[in-house]
Amino acid sequence: MPLYICPTPIGNLKDITLRVLEVLKSVDYIIAEDTRITRNLLNKYEIKTPLKSFHSYSNKRVLENIVEDLKFGRSIALVSDAGTPCISDPGYDLVKRCIEEDIHFEVLPGPNAVLPAIILSGFPPDKFFFYGFLKRTEGKIKKTFEYFKEFEYPVVFYESPYRLVKVLSIMNDIFDSNRYVSVVREISKIHESVVRGSVKEVLEYFKANPPKGEIVIVLGGRDMKI
Q1: Is the dihedral of CA 17, 193, 209, 129 positive or negative?
Q2: In 133-198, alpha helices (H)
Q3: Pairing outcome for strands 129-133 and 155-159
Q4: What pTM, to 2 d.p., does this model score?
Q5: What percentage of the chain carries pLDDT values higher than 70?
Q6: Ordered domains of the chain (ranges, CATH)
Q7: d(CA 121, CA 116)
């Protein structure tokens, strides 16, 4: 039996596919980043499947136990706290082990924050670069932005609301006044919002309006307007 990579809602719990619900009900057990968050989803849809923890701090033995269960024919669903697994979570390590052991796995389509953010940004969505979470130190953030200084396509970053003003301040130092950016907040939730403009304009907005919730930054390409 295979491993199923199952996307979960990034905000509204109704944003889950019928196929994912079917899989979550039918597998032997579910592995999740935070079982408390996943339990809320399972309770909403009255799913009683056993739930186990699998996160960035899990030791190697946990990963190998999952691989052994798959080799012996158990079916398992992998979920993240929100969105599609394997991006900034340990799911990628499990996928690598499945490939090494010739274990079949299926990736189900479903919610993610990248595509809604790039479309909401107003930048052309046909070509873009997904970076993910920025590094922690200011020096590494500067180095990343320097790399994208002459990039001609939008770049998508995930960011914490607690670091957003700092990140935008660094961005404002690196890019000229004609570089545009979009900050998308709380995608699919009640308080979803989008702030678009020059890097300086967006920085000033969030200095005056401290952000809350999940953040996706879309940096426009060189010479790209909204």
Answers
A1: positive
A2: 138-147, 164-174
A3: parallel
A4: 0.90
A5: 99
A6: 3-107 (3.40.1010.10), 114-219 (3.30.950.10)
A7: 8
